[in-house]
Design brief:
5-stranded antiparallel β-sheet, alpha+beta, about 130 residues, Immunoglobulin-like
Length: about 130
């Protein structure tokens, strides 16, 4: 019985610490969009919210690197965005897309201008 209480206390402490480690901006992004893709090292995440057509780019690890994403829409030109964020924070990019459009994107982790590693890509419709 005592071991069960100790394990329960540890689980509760871990959950409480995790809720303070991940700022609301990153938690909000993760909860408001789908089709998340993560760089293989876990340092960058990108996801798309079709309601409002927002692409979120998030720094998901305190590794000293910064996140970015490559994306392409109907113009067929690839765009690269990078943001100097601290771990747990996101940048939302309002793409203002037509419902008939789709977006293809992937997340990358960067050291300066050097791409360290990138996720696989995903394609999502703007109409949800």
């Amino acid at each position: 019985m005592r071991i069960r209480r100790i394990v329960g206390a540890i689980a509760l402490t871990t959950a409480t610490v995790a809720s303070f480690v991940m700022p609301a901006s990153a938690a909000s992004a993760a909860g408001s969009c789908g089709h998340e893709v993560f760089s293989p090292d876990g340092g960058a995440m990108a996801c798309f919210n079709p309601t409002g057509e927002y692409l979120f780019i998030c720094d998901t690890d305190a590794d000293g690197h910064h996140p970015g994403a490559w994306y392409v829409r109907g113009d067929l030109l690839w765009h690269n965005v990078q943001y100097d964020l601290s771990a747990g924070n996101c940048h939302d990019l309002n793409l203002d897309m037509a419902e008939s459009e789709s977006i293809t994107y992937y997340a990358c982790n960067y050291e300066g201008s050097d791409e360290l590693n990138c996720s696989s890509w995903v394609t999502v419709s703007a109409n949800g």
